[in-house]
Amino acid sequence: MKIGIIGAGNIATGLGKFWAKHGHELFFSYSRDAEKLKKAANSVDPSARFGTPAEATAFADVIVLAVPYNAVPDALSAAGVLNGKLLFSCVNPLKPDYSGLFVGTNTSGAEEIAKLAPGAKVVEGLPAFAEVLHSDVRQIAGQQVTVFVSGDDSEAKQIVTRLLVECELEVIDAGPLWTARYVEPSMMLLVNLAYSQGFGGRVGFKFLKEKT
């Protein structure tokens, strides 16, 4: 699969290294520093391409959005027309200082992203923290981290689920895109526990259920 990644930070590279291992073709984009973008792409896979968000859109079967929330409008504008494309958002609407969320409960970052990308098949799956993705071991206390996926297109959610499973994460289908209104604040709680309450970045949620 061809994956165009808009973003070149720790989440983008943390996910990308797993996808490269599974044989996907990667295209990194969206950085103010061209050398940093090249270095990020090469650190994941020497064969990974890099360039502009519009080039990533033209290249990709799946577009992964992995930028800070306040950069989303500019990033999507640079990506161009996304009609019919699968847009996999890894964006939680965190304020830059981690003091809270820009939006929550009556809407979600995912729903606002969908408004900015009309016609795109938007699926949100907020992955494990970068510290977990870049660690030698994905499991925490011997268990896989649970990730919740929200979206209105079932086939698109299945594709995103497979990509997250390849990153050694447990994936739960949370339902339609509006369920992101509740997933995003839960991740804000995890951010607070990790960085304000001193638990550190190797933390995550685990969804427990009775076996059927």
Structure at a glance:
The chain is an alpha/beta fold. It has helices spanning 10-21, 34-44, 53-59, 72-79, 109-116, 130-133, 154-165, 180-195, and strands spanning 2-6, 25-29, 49-51, 62-65, 86-89, 121-125, 146-151, 170-175.
3D structure, described in words:
The chain has 212 residues and is an alpha/beta fold. It has a single domain (2-195), classed as NAD(P)-binding Rossmann-like Domain (Rossmann fold), CATH 3.40.50. It is 37% helix and 18% strand. It is built from 8 helices and 8 strands; from the N terminus they run E-H-E-H-E-H-E-H-E-H-E-H-E-H-E-H. An 8-stranded mixed sheet has the order 3-2-1-4-5-6-7-8, with helices on both faces. The radius of gyration is 16 Å and the shape is globular.
Q: Pick out the low-confidence regions.
A: none
Mean pLDDT: 96
Strand/helix succession: EHEHEHEHEHEHEHEH
CATH class: Alpha Beta
- Fourth-level CATH superfamily: NAD(P)-binding Rossmann-like Domain
Proportion in β-strands: 15-25%
Q: Supply the CATH architecture.
A: 3-Layer(aba) Sandwich
Strand order of the largest sheet: 3-2-1-4-5-6-7-8
Distance between the termini: 33 Å
Globular, elongated, flat, extended or rod-shaped: what is the shape?
globular
The share of residues in helices is 25-40%
Domain tally: 1
